[in-house]
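fyi for ur records
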Amino acid sequence: MAHYRASESKREQFRRYLEKAGVLDSLTNVLVALYEETEKPSNALDFIKHQLGVGPEAESLRLELNTLQQKYDQLMELMEELRSRLLQYEPAQDAGTE
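which gave:
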């Protein structure tokens, strides 16, 4: 009996977590939208993915983000390289002399 209460407590904690994170509201809204569709889609899972923004558009945005992150990393490396080259040509500045 104690095991049943422990698992029920974990379920309740998980349910509260989902509710607090807004997952339950989002899923409810998607399921209501599916229910209210006059012509039910042939693939309900694709409908849900589209409603949640997990479709091909989201995938293309993820790919674009990945590409931009790589470009950013390359530019940061280049900036560090140029900064170190610049320091080679700048005269050393003493704090006490002006």
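The chain has a mean pLDDT of 86. thats all i got for now
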